[in-house]
Structures are given as C-alpha cells and as structure tokens.
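Risk register update: the risk of archive-format incompatibility is retired. Evidence:
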Amino acid sequence: MKKIEFEAPVLQHQNMNAAYVEFPFSAEEFFGKKGQVKIKAVFDKKIEYRGSLANMGQGCHVLGLTRDVRKSLRKTFGDMVAVELWEDKEERTVDIPEDVVEIFNQNEKAKKLFEKMSYMHRKEYIRWITSAKKPETRENRKVKMIEMILAGKKGI
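Archived output:
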C-alpha cells in the first residue's frame, strides 16, 4: 500500500462553507486513475477520514474537508493541514440499524433504490436518521427518507 504525505492550505469552495485541499501530485501517476480515487486519510496525524479524491477537470484532484473534520482539527480556510493518504480498496458498507431495516422491509422498492445508491448517499441518509435526538424525530425522518428515495432524491 503506497502512502503519500503532504501539507496543503485549507481552501474555500467559492463563497460556501465548504473546504478542500488540492492533491499536489498526479493521481494518474500515483494511483493509475484519472477519475475519482477512494482514499483513507489522516489529517494532522490525529483525525482519520475516509473519502475520495475528486478530479476537478482542471489538472488536479481535490480532497474535501467536512465541517466536522475542520472543527476537530480547529482549522479554517487558509490554515495549513498535514495529510497522509492512501488508496482505500476495502468495500464500503453502511451499518443499517434494525428499525431502518424494518421500514425497508415494508418498502421493497425503496430498499432496492437505496441499495443502488453510492456509499456516500447511503451513509448520509443513515447518519441523518441516527442523529435525531428525539424518538419522534427519528420516526419522522425514516418516513421522510422513504418518500425522498421513492421520489428519486439521492441524498439529504
């Protein structure tokens, strides 16, 4: 497994509260891929992350930094971050809680559509449901998730 380390500034995407770092090497040379590369990373030798290098079509790949990662690192736009990353070849699975399995078992079409979604979209839906603080919010979100999936919405 090839690992690569570099430092890069945290960049802001347009005027949004979205951040990324540029991968300062050729992903094609390093990973043998021109498009998206699934990776595992460690930021500042303490925060682990699983995501993707995305090809932005402008000669470089970028790695997004979620708000949670930035908060844990206490970093903002313009700050430098140390990155260690390597290709993630493990299958990406999402643990689905029993109560969500039950609602999918009642909605076979939604279940099949959910299973066809990308790892990231499946993870986003499950995180949205499990982050509910009140039981009634969780129940409402499960119903809304089924409606959104059946309507063709791939993410929250």
